[in-house]
Design goal:
10 helices, mainly alpha, elongated
């Protein structure tokens, strides 16, 4: 058992069954029979071990080896790509200045030193150039933001008025921040991008004090 298989096998049966069903990846020769069922059977044909084997095979043989931000991956067999739709579709909280101040204070009270540092990193990621002198993209903002904690991402989303309503994940917050960046690009020249971001973040900081 390799390291990846061992890590996957450490998860619960229901979690692995969900992922296998989502990816349409099952033990060899069993895909069609399992996909025809309304409920997956918890039996010897579909064990944690067999599902882990199927997922490891999928990861090692059916998608590009380059790192990716789930679920945006490219398959080798079909060539399909999960669309990276970073246009916000979630309803956002309409926060008053006092709402924003109170919510930021609440989040701040729960921040540890790592999350506090992450806020600064997020600001840096949002204000760094998106293109070099040759007009080529610089880095992947989604990958960079994914390094930050949920609390830090939530803090910046509140600061910029991009906090989604309801239950949200890191991916939801990253989508909102990237959507915010794209909204800035639509109204600004790329050469003015960094200065405009710094101004927007400074404005958000001023509102808190």
């Amino acid at each position: 058992m390799n390291a990846l298989q061992k890590r996957i096998s450490g998860h619960k049966w229901v979690a692995l069954a969900y992922v296998c069903n989502d990816l349409n990846q099952f033990p060899a020769g069993k895909t069609e029979s399992f996909m025809s069922l309304s409920v997956l059977p918890k039996d010897k044909q579909l064990t944690i071990s067999t599902m882990a084997d199927a997922l490891v095979h999928w990861r090692m043989n059916d998608i590009e080896s380059a790192p990716f931000l789930w679920p945006h991956f490219k398959t080798k067999t079909s060539g399909s790509v999960a669309e990276q739709n970073f246009d916000s579709t979630r309803k956002l909280w309409e926060l008053t200045p006092q709402d924003r101040k109170d919510l930021l204070a609440e989040i701040t009270a729960r921040l540890n030193i790592t999350s506090t540092l992450d806020i600064g990193l997020i600001h840096r990621f949002l204000t760094q150039p998106v293109m070099n002198a040759n007009g080529q993209p610089v880095g992947k903002l989604g990958d960079s933001l994914n390094r930050a904690s949920l609390s830090a991402l939530a803090f910046v989303c509140v600061d910029l008025g991009r906090l989604p309503t309801g239950k949200f994940t890191k991916a939801d917050l990253i989508t909102e921040l990237i959507s915010w960046v794209r909204s800035q690009l639509k109204s600004l020249q790329v050469t003015d991008f960094c200065a405009a971001h710094v101004k927007a973040l400074d404005t958000a900081q001023t509102r808190r004090h």
